[in-house]
Design brief:
The complex is a heterodimer of chains A (334) and B (327). With 334 residues, chain A is α/β, with parallel strands linked by helices. Chain A has a single domain, classed as Thiamin diphosphate (ThDP)-binding fold, Pyr/PP domains (Rossmann fold, 3-Layer(aba) Sandwich). Chain A starts with 12 loop residues before the first helix and ends in a 22-residue tail after the last helix. The model of chain B has no long low-confidence stretch (mean pLDDT 97). Chain B folds into 2 domains: 182 residues, 3-Layer(aba) Sandwich (Rossmann fold); 127 residues, Rossmann fold. Chain B starts with a strand and ends in a 5-residue tail after the last helix. Chain B is built from 13 helices and 14 strands. In chain B, the strands form 3 sheets. Chain B has a 7-stranded mixed β-sheet with strand order 3-2-4-5-7-6-12, sandwiched between helices. Chain B has a 5-stranded mixed β-sheet with strand order 9-11-10-13-14, with helices on both faces. Chain B is globular and about 60 Å long. Chains A and B meet through strand 2, strand 3, helix 5 and helix 6 of A and helix 3, helix 5 and helix 6 of B.
Chain lengths: 334, 327
């Protein structure tokens, strides 16, 4: 890794506890979602991020509140790490009006204007051109913001991926491309779907600096993101991170996982981003033994409250079915 | 009142939009240095610079999607796609993003983008540049679809479309660019909803839009000489559709002929016909007739291209059949 020492975050106790807490929140939130899925409370597709938490948490920690986010259909972790309240996200999973997208999107389409969270895009690579446009708008309106675009490595096989990298580089736009490479495009292994499995070389082909990151290490992700943002904010155009990571759970709730060995999953679980980080912090005496129990208690209470909020939420009236297809008369676009 | 070409009407609308609002930018393939594939943006690069008159690479999904993102980010992009055939490469962005984000976000975000593209046959451009697929877009809730047929609409619809908070697609028929029409002095923005009665008449209603309007008007003139008075409706907007104007006319004439350049099967004329059947069936003296493209990819040779698309004689014949005249 090519690191400028000034990009290293100050790893205060508060800082590392914050990272740990966010990863635990995402893990427990999604474990609860899987349970609620089996109970029939959450329906449709449910794509869990379990195992990949260090990526969303490390990247979001480095971003500023005015930066924009474009994510994929596996975006619960990104939404929570960005600070969208867990109760609003859970209500969205339930399809209730209180959800962050009024229940209209569900698990795959989390949007939040307040945190500039532009979805939740369930077309692989469909979000990349939008990120380019958001960055173009910021640049043309002379706002010092960055658009951070998450996508899986499967997106690199799509034309929109290449079109977007080309546009962002050609127009020198402030886009941070974050490729979360979990090794499988749904069930198709990397080397069975990509002729080039080193994604930074794709970026390099467009003249975009890239960096390979250990996506199981939240500090490595945060440091790499800070480094990338420094370059982008200095006006050097887009930056590309390839985060090597792994999804511990199935692709969605319908996936019997015929395409990978259990041994491989177990091997990656040895590198669990939460326990690994926790153990390192304990070894370095950066946190205390009882900190984790406290985090677990707080997170359990937050999730319990989120589920209660979602349960108590309302179903939208059928009479409202066709709302939000068009903007109501008199309302002006932002 | 002065005569102006459709191309110049589009060009002056673009120029005015760029002058009136700093948030407006024009982007697309060859809109800048080349001056536009149909020369609609000639000179605008010099006037407004490469940031606001932005040449794009050949990446329809990329730059249409970037337009959507730019609209989300507070700009008012006008994205030009050379032809509706090319727009199929951007169908994902238009249908899956532009049309859905307002809804999927529970009303948090609107997409104020205008996408312009050429459509239709008549310039011997063969089967990958000549199709009329505006019905594909008119099928999709969340977008609005316009088809300016006159210089007044070509000049006036763009600004109104830019004020609309939702995605608007403007279809410009390729045979219209060189057409000339009278533009009133000081002509400005016009409403983008509602059909026009382009010619009043009491015997048959001719319903059409875009490049077929002047053919319908010519057919009406020819029929008038034979004593048949057609009322010609220019739809102007394909989504939403102005049902009231159609039904008012059909209630008066008791017969309708729909003219459009989409293919017949599952085409735009089928939708108009169905609406008349649903809303004015008992007013009809005859079945609704359709004059459409023949079901063949548009061929290159002039005589075959002409045979494949609605012509004045086809419209006259359809009217005569509808009212039971031998013609």
């Amino acid at each position: 890794m090519n690191l400028d020492t000034s990009d290293k975050p100050h790893l205060s106790r508060e800082h590392v506890l914050g990272l740990l807490r966010q990863m635990v929140l995402i893990r427990r939130f999604e474990e609860k979602c899987a349970e609620l899925y089996s109970a029939g409370k959450i329906r449709g597709f449910l794509h869990l991020y379990i195992g990949e938490e260090a990526n969303a948490v490390g990247v979001m920690r480095a971003l500023s509140p005015q930066d924009a986010i474009v994510a994929t259909y596996r975006e619960h972790g990104h939404a929570l790490a960005r600070g969208i309240p867990a109760d609003k996200v859970m209500a969205e999973m339930f399809g209730k009006v209180e959800g962050c997208s009024r229940g209209r999107g569900g698990s795959m389409h989390i949007f939040d204007k307040e945190t500039r969270f532009y979805g939740g895009n369930a077309i692989v690579a469909g979000g990349l051109p939008i990120a380019v446009g958001l960055a173009l708008a910021d640049k043309m309106q002379k706002r010092d913001n960055v658009t951070c675009c998450f996508f899986g490595e499967g997106a690199a096989a799509e034309g929109e991926f290449h079109e977007s990298l080309n546009l962002a580089a050609l127009w020198n736009l402030p886009v941070l491309f974050v490729c979360e490479n979990n090794g499988y495009a749904m069930g198709t292994a990397l080397d069975r779907s990509e002729s080039q499995t080193d994604f930074c070389r794709h970026a390099d082909a467009y003249g975009i600096p890239g960096e390979l990151v250990d996506g199981m290490d939240v500090i490595a992700v945060e440091v790499a993101t800070r480094h990338a943002l420094k370059s982008i904010r200095a006006g050097n155009g887009p930056y590309f991170l390839e985060n090597r990571t792994y999804r511990f759970r199935a692709h969605s709730m319908f996936d019997p996982e015929l395409y990978r060995d259990k041994a491989e999953v177990e091997e990656w679980k040895e590198r669990d981003p939460i326990t690994g980080f926790h153990d390192r912090l304990i070894a370095a005496s950066a946190i205390r033994e009882d900190d984790m129990a406290k985090i677990e208690d707080e997170v359990a209470a937050e999730i319990e409250a989120a589920v209660a909020y979602a349960e108590a939420g309302k179903w939208e009236a059928i009479e409202e079915l066709t709302r939000d297809v068009y903007t109501p008369a008199g309302e002006v676009a932002p | 009142m002065s005569d102006i070409t459709y191309r110049d009407a589009v060009r002056s609308a673009l120029q005015e939009a760029l002058q009136r609002d700093d948030r407006v930018l024009l982007m697309g393939e060859d809109v800048g240095a080349y001056g536009g594939a149909y020369a609609c943006s000639k000179g605008l690069l010099d006037e407004f610079g490469p940031d606001r008159v932005r040449d794009t690479p050949l990446s329809e999904a990329g730059f249409v999607g970037a337009g959507i993102g730019a609209a989300l980010g507070g700009l008012r992009p006008i994205v030009e796609v050379m032809t509706v055939n090319f727009s199929l490469l951007a169908l994902d962005q238009i249908v899956n993003n532009a049309a859905t984000i307002r809804h999927m976000s529970g009303g948090q975000f609107s997409i104020p983008i205008v996408i312009r593209m050429s459509t239709g046959a008549g310039r011997q451009l063969a089967a990958q540049h000549s199709h009329s697929l505006e019905n594909w877009y008119a099928h999709v809730p969340g977008i609005k679809v316009l088809a300016p047929a006159t210089v007044t609409d070509a000049r006036g619809m763009l600004w109104t479309a830019l004020q609309d908070p939702d995605p608007v697609i403007i279809f410009e028929h390729v045979t219209l660019y060189n057409d000339t029409g009278p533009l009133p002095d000081g002509a400005g923005p016009v409403p983008i909803e509602g059909a026009d009665v382009a010619r009043a008449g009491g015997d048959v209603t001719l319903i059409t839009y875009g490049g077929s309007l002047r053919k319908a008007l010519a057919a009406a003139e020819s029929l008038s000489a034979a004593g048949v008075e057609c009322e010609v409706i220019d739809l102007r907007s394909l989504r939403p559709l102005d049902d009231a104007t159609i039904m008012r006319s059909v209630t008066k004439t008791h017969s309708a002929v729909v003219v459009d350049e989409c293919w017949r099967s599952v085409g735009f004329a089928a939708e108009i016909s169905a609406r008349i059947t649903e809303q004015a069936f008992y007013e009809l003296d005859a079945p609704v007739a359709r004059v459409t493209a023949v079901e063949v990819p548009i061929p290159y040779p002039k005589h075959l291209e002409t045979a494949a698309t609605p012509q004045i004689d086809d419209i006259v014949a359809a009217v005569n059949r509808t009212i039971g005249r031998d013609g």
